[in-house]
Design a protein that fits this description.
Blueprint lengths: L4 H6 L7 H25 L8 H19 L15 H11 L29
Helix pairs in contact: 2-3
């Protein structure tokens, strides 16, 4: 089943595997930093404000899809409100803990979405 560009990269619906999250999160932050420096060098610091909505949306999509992979809702981001322990717990939850195996209420297993093999039940 082919996914559109919007479904794959811009929609917070669906799931995102831990490995993919651990690659995409630093890439989004690095891209933001590089564009910030470039825009600030070419223009003024006020133009850099244009980056914030796009970066915030990209981070929200990544966080929501990673939480969905573990069967959690976006409300789990409220852990950030607890000083020190909340963001630390959220970091461990998102970067280190595995997602739920198999399908959950947010969709099919992210690790098996693009699998190109046939599973045969031999117990029948």
């Amino acid at each position: 089943m082919s996914m559109s560009f919007y479904q794959r990269y811009l929609s917070p619906a669906g799931r995102l595997s831990r490995g993919c999250f651990n690659v995409l999160l630093p890439l989004v932050l690095l891209l933001f930093a590089a564009l910030y420096v470039l825009i600030e060098a070419l223009g003024s610091e006020t133009l850099t404000w244009l980056l914030y909505p796009f970066t915030a949306w990209a981070l929200l999509v990544l966080l929501a899809r990673r939480l969905h992979d573990q069967g959690r809702s976006l409300a789990s981001l409220l852990w950030v409100l607890l000083p020190i322990a909340g963001p630390l717990w959220l970091l461990i939850l998102l970067c280190c803990r595995a997602g739920s195996a198999g399908e959950n209420q947010f969709g099919a297993d992210a690790r098996l979405r693009d699998a190109d093999y046939l599973t045969v039940d031999i117990h029948s």
